[in-house]
């Protein structure tokens, strides 16, 4: 139940002395790690810190894919499909956290495209495999991520759209040449973006 649904409790909390309210606020903030990160970014960081965050996350993502490339071999293996699915989900989770903290739409799209490009080009041999359920889950997820990135791209200013157009087109074209094609058609993703 929300405090807003209990007007008496809300009034009592607002009537507390400032020192008591501050203690309560700090205790509540400590229970939400993401909120702590977001407040740190908003209150203590500037544009240089944002660029440092972007550079660090870009390096982390590339390193994760490079390490995975050493482990996921060319052999037709169910475990490779599952591992790639986990990797793509993990890296998207990292981008989700970055976006929630910084609200930076440009770097968010850059990272979404980086993840898709790495997955589609570096691991094409895994995406082309067919282990029914596992492949279907991976293909569904990748197609949904492409749709999501395409939607984010469409919402950007036209100058920024121009900057990302070539990368997004390459991802979509690569996906249409893979088993993802039917999933992209299902999501109404055009083969050529404008």
Automatic annotation (TrEMBL):
Keywords, comma-separated and alphabetical: Coiled coil
Domain of life according to the entry: Bacteria
Which residues does UniProt call coiled coil? 47-74
* Protein name in the entry: Uncharacterized protein
